[in-house]
């Protein structure tokens, strides 16, 4: 009851608003796609499924919120989660079946599970646990302290890249780097690693431009995405179709949109209208104003989580919040960047708004963890104040 009384409504309300609005947008964006081949179902098929995901996610959020905070610091529990996700990723590597060019899904009891999504929150949990216990070692013996956790991190990263899920791997990479910075490394080392990371990204882009599919890690469809990023109209009939139709949707929406449910691009023109490109449909139906309202609520939620992380007295809780906020920030940025052509399209969905079971459950677990950290900090602060008075 103490936790429920101290719940952070600056986290809880934006989460509820975005989730409910996401269900409505999924209905609008998927109503046509659900009725045509290969799905051939009722218009509200994905709406109902997303509604179930969000409702289940709400109960997951409350369960994680009410879970005893100290149990999250259990090494056995944390390592069990790491091993489960690692086994899933290894299974996909050897036995995974491709879907849309990637072997990233498992069928468990008739339910599709995407291990790469759960790997995000597990990596955040793992790094928060390790780095919160070894902060002195990170400052004084950086290489020795960081080598074991980074080795496990790189194994996760490699398995996700080999699916291949470049978008998911990119999100996890940034999460890892930010959490290492936040754990107490020196400013000079942090800046050096940041510069090295940007140089690496620039170098990879140049290699792709020069050598294309001759590179061992680049498949044909992935190279097409780079071509679409550089000049979508030169490949308008193939890889550029998504981005061009996204432009049309956003342009047609203008400032205030054409009205909810009135999108033209969702009627067979824009592929993945209710997953990767749901923001394009949002922009077409509710205009720039609608997009800005959603993004503003989303950014407010991220900033609030960062603030909780910065204020937290407990190092574990602080790193947990910083990792989760970074996950949301990077995922939202990559999706929006792909939708407006600032980044290559990677198949990354927009948090809380796009359709997806695994993504929704990971997001709700994340919100539950943040709320748990926030309420625990408030309760502990109240105890400290009471002790001082006595």
How would you describe what is shown here?
A two-stranded antiparallel ribbon has the order 1-2. It has 14 helices and two strands; from the N terminus they run ααααββαααααααααα. Helix content is 70%, strand content 2%. The radius of gyration is 21 Å and the shape is globular. A hairpin with a 2-residue loop joins strand 1 and strand 2. It starts with a helix and ends with a helix. It has 390 residues and is an all-alpha fold. The model has no long low-confidence stretch (mean pLDDT 88).
Distance between the termini: 24 Å
Q: Per the principal axes of the C-alpha atoms, what is the gross shape? A: globular
Strand arrangement in the largest pleated sheet: 1-2
* DSSP helical segment count: 14
Task: Spell out the key features of this protein.
mainly alpha, two-stranded antiparallel sheet, 14 helices, globular
